[in-house]
Amino acid sequence: MRALLRVADAIDAASRAIGQSVKWLAAALVCWQFAVVVLRYGFGTSYPWAQEGVTYLHAVLFMLAIGYAYMLDAHVRVDFFWAGWSERRRAVLEILGVVLLVWPFCALLVWASWGYVAMSFRLGEGPMTHGGLPLQPYLKALILVMAGLLAVQALSVLLRALGVLAGLERAVFPQRRAVGEA
What is the pTM of this model? Predict the structure, then answer.
């Protein structure tokens, strides 16, 4: 079990590295959007590639940060009983959530988007608009990357939950406390 927790540590380290890398895209996204607005309303001009750039930055930021957000337990949680539960009970819920919800969702996402992404590459799909960025197949490929990042981080959550049940871990989301205390 300790070896599996080291696997969870490695997954978390990778998610943390990706999350810390892409979080700067949020600042870039705000600056880019501001520049687009200033060009449009201040100077009466616009560039399709600049407008599409906002979409690309937004997609890259959120799709690559999904594992990091899950690791930090920063996703939307609709279970209002969660706060009052013991860590063991939370661990059981997380195991059920990963096996019954997260992994099937990731599999469905890959299954549903594989052909969509493949067709985009096969056609050599161009920009969304005339004069836009010719990167649409890569943008669509991020759907598959996102599903993979979420599925791998779900493995880490599952392993930590099993560690809690085995008495080797104190919390399913130990990073949540570390971030909250900082």
Answer: 0.88
